[in-house]
């Protein structure tokens, strides 16, 4: 009986940045739970691989090439979803990121781009899906944040500020869109993605340092995030306006990058 509550059959989920890493893991699990997944990414080969994998596993999905920072692209994603499936029940705003730059080296353009990448993209997609969810009488939005929103990380100041802004957006939307739409965020720690591994490979021994600085002494599994998204998408879920910390227990920066003092 309990497991039946986690069945997402008939629901339609949009997952941005689903071509790889965290977004791909979330998309796969939502599909395994029964949702039809509309996955977006800028790189066609990546998003096609994600949706092909979902369909090969028996799930249902649709790949849409789109830039989440573009309102016209995002409008096309939502319009296509409504035309094909007639509904959108779940939105996972996963797009985000930043390049490394020390505080004194961050340009105005880099700072604004990071904010747009992490916050404006979520604002645009949420604003586009919300009318459909309100009309249907229900909906669930999950914003993917980071532990950096609550403690600083050297050489990632713009990213820390942007993720803090995303969590503020989460709270504001949760208040304004209740009771029909629930809005939550998941603040991540270090997860085992190809992107992270590529960075760690450049510094031998860095993975071990990161794991040692994490109370659970391991990196996260991206599909674990998908399971939390399934819970947040169940009709009986009582959570909104919440920031869920899925980070292995860290309470400070666990990055192994050797960033020297000024």
Question: Can you tell me about this structure?
Answer:
The chain has helices at 21-32, 44-56, 71-85, 108-136, 157-177, 194-201, 206-212, 222-233; strands at 12-15, 36-41, 60-65, 90-93, 139-146, 181-188, 243-246. It is an alpha/beta fold and 262 residues long. A 7-stranded parallel beta sheet has the order 3-2-1-4-5-6-7, sandwiched between helices. Helix 1 packs parallel to helix 2, helix 1 (21-32) packs across helix 8 (222-233) and helix 3 runs parallel beside helix 4. The longest helix is centred in the middle third of the chain and has 29 residues, at 108-136. It starts with 11 loop residues before the first strand and ends in a 16-residue tail after the last strand. The mean pLDDT is 94.
How are the SSEs ordered, and which strands pair?
Blueprint: E1 12-15, H1 21-32, E2 36-41, H2 44-56, E3 60-65, H3 71-85, E4 90-93, H4 108-136, E5 139-146, H5 157-177, E6 181-188, H6 194-201, H7 206-212, H8 222-233, E7 243-246
Parallel strand pairs: 1-2, 1-4, 2-3, 4-5, 5-6, 6-7
